[in-house]
Design a protein that fits this description.
Elements (H helix, E strand, L loop, with lengths): L15 H24 L6 H18 L3 H7 L2 H22 L2 H7 L5 H6 L2 H14 L3 H9 L1 H23 L9 H13 L2 H8 L20 H51 L13 H11 L9
Helix pairs in contact: 1-2, 2-4, 3-4, 4-9, 4-12, 7-9, 8-9, 10-12, 11-12
Length: 305
């Protein structure tokens, strides 16, 4: 019965390194809004500020107690929720919060290196390769026992996730995909993670020694924990991406319908206009009138008494 022993989780554990990161992120946002934007003659919209605060808040939630402690010490399924937040939710919010003028100070989309590194196929393959690597048992076990390795792995995952989202909702129009390619791109991003997800869901034995501990939080077994992690990655992550695909499709469809209605209205207006009157055989034209006056010469001078 030792496998099902529960124990007190709610002893608060401080994470000052997380607080420093969150405070630094808030300071950077305030500096951009209060110093950089006025200096550039720009104003950061309230919508972008809301996206930035939501991104920082969710990053704090995923990285601090108790989510961090449960994810790294007890349940791999919570670790999966943590990864989904820092790869699928926080990065697009940060990109939506970034105005174009600020992004161009950081990235030059015309630079050859930027064009090569930020191609959709490049960033998509790189991100999914990093995701696959972070599910290798050695990587997971080392991340759970080594703090520096843990934060480095999360940083690489976070940065590649930001690059992966650039073709979808990045602030630079040159790097964004059109609606139809964007939907196919997101579809690929939803399919590729099913490989490690299936590996987790159907494994019959514990995969990660770091989570194969005798004390089981809330009575969740190792097998159930792995299966939940796989299902969260496959179903929750997939549904999230498919929801975005649906949103892109409906917006694209609405724009197409609006363009079709505008074209139909323009065609109807053109067809209702009166046709030009053609000159008949007995109708004088302007050119004929001018020629007649030229042939007549100057008018006679009228003599008066």
């Amino acid at each position: 019965m030792a496998e099902f022993i529960d124990y007190d989780l709610w002893g608060w554990t401080p994470h000052p390194e997380v607080w420093l990161i969150v405070l630094a992120a808030l300071a950077v946002g305030a500096y951009a809004a209060r110093v950089l934007a006025p200096a550039a003659g720009e104003v950061i919209e309230r919508r972008r500020k809301g996206c930035y605060l939501a991104a920082v808040g969710l990053l704090w939630l995923a990285s601090d107690w108790p989510v961090h402690d449960i994810a790294e010490e007890h349940l791999y399924s919570v670790h999966m929720v943590q990864h989904l937040l820092i790869t699928l939710v926080v990065p697009p919010l940060l990109l939506l919060a970034t105005p174009e003028w600020l992004a161009r100070r950081v990235i030059d989309p015309a630079a050859p290196l930027a064009r090569r590194l930020l191609r959709p196929i490049t960033v998509g393959v790189t991100f999914n390769a990093v995701v696959a690597i972070t599910h290798i048992p050695w990587v997971v076990n080392t991340s759970a026992s080594n703090g520096v390795f843990h934060y480095t792995a999360h940083l690489v995952l976070f940065v590649t996730a930001i690059a992966m989202w650039m073709p979808v909702c990045g602030p630079l129009a040159e790097l964004r995909l059109q609606p139809l390619p964007k939907m196919f791109y997101l579809f690929a991003m939803s399919v590729l993670p099913t490989v490690p997800a299936g590996f987790l869901t159907f494994a019959q034995t514990p995969i990660y020694a770091a989570y194969d501990t005798p004390l089981r939080l809330w009575g969740v077994t190792v097998a159930s924990d792995q299966q939940m992690a796989g299902l969260i990655m496959k179903i929750a992550g997939g549904l999230y991406l498919w929801t975005i695909i649906a949103g892109v499709f409906f917006r694209w469809s609405a724009r197409q319908r609006a363009a079709d209605r505008a074209a139909a209205a323009a065609a109807a207006a053109a067809s209702d206009a009166p046709p030009p009157v053609a000159a008949g055989a007995g109708t004088l034209t302007y050119t004929q009138v001018v020629e007649a006056f030229e042939q007549a010469g100057a008018p006679p001078v009228e003599l008066r008494d």
